[in-house]
């Protein structure tokens, strides 16, 4: 694939005298071609882009460990971490959608804020504001009780109920001292949790989104449902899949409430 991209780029460069990678997206033809090359390049395996999928079986291991005495932290952090991991996997969230860029910086239009989350008796509604593929925002599929552990509804409800009353425009996820939860903090916490549970390396906050997609794919969810759930505009979600054994397949289905 990489050789083919190079060949096409060389032909275009020879014919026009212009490197297609330097195009500005302002021009329709140039922008389209530049985006095409960028998209093709992203399909090439790269160690920098390799991310593991944190699926339901992985999520269960981590949340059980977080709640165990072996994990030394305060109760608030336990609740916070469980909610972050569970929501990220079940709602296929991009890190930029629910994590703040810094401990003091937050954009209520782009990042999840209190007014975007509505807690009902039997479900939770979340509105994702401006995102990578939807500039107008989108309402996620309702978060329902799954009757399994970890349950996204119970984890998020417990976290929301632990919160003090805060402004509607404030970020949903904050530390006990009021500082915003950032991508770098969750990245460090996730790597530490995985290391302590002998789960190897290659984990990042994006592993949550990939794991949610992989889990849905391996219980046979309709591709159109996965595409809507993850707010993809293309079939790019198809590259976010990994193979599982029959036992892991069944564990995923149980956790998502597909089996009894």
Could you explain how this protein is built, in words?
By secondary structure, the chain is mainly alpha-helical. The chain is globular. A three-stranded antiparallel beta sheet has the order 1-2-3, with helices on one face. The longest helix has 16 residues, at 75-90. The chain has helices spanning 2-16, 28-42, 56-66, 75-90, 95-98, 152-161, 183-196, 206-217, 223-229, 246-255; strands spanning 117-119, 124-128, 138-139. Helices cover 44% and strands 4% of the residues. The model has no long low-confidence stretch (mean pLDDT 81). It has ten helices and three strands, in the order αααααβββααααα. A hairpin with a 4-residue loop joins strand 1 and strand 2 (124-128).
Q: Could you outline the blueprint of secondary structure elements for this entry?
A:
Blueprint: H1 2-16, H2 28-42, H3 56-66, H4 75-90, H5 95-98, E1 117-119, E2 124-128, E3 138-139, H6 152-161, H7 183-196, H8 206-217, H9 223-229, H10 246-255
Antiparallel strand pairs: 1-2, 2-3
Summarize the structure.
The chain is mostly helical. It has 10 helices and 3 strands; from the N terminus they run αααααβββααααα. A 3-stranded antiparallel beta sheet has the order 1-2-3, with helices on one face.
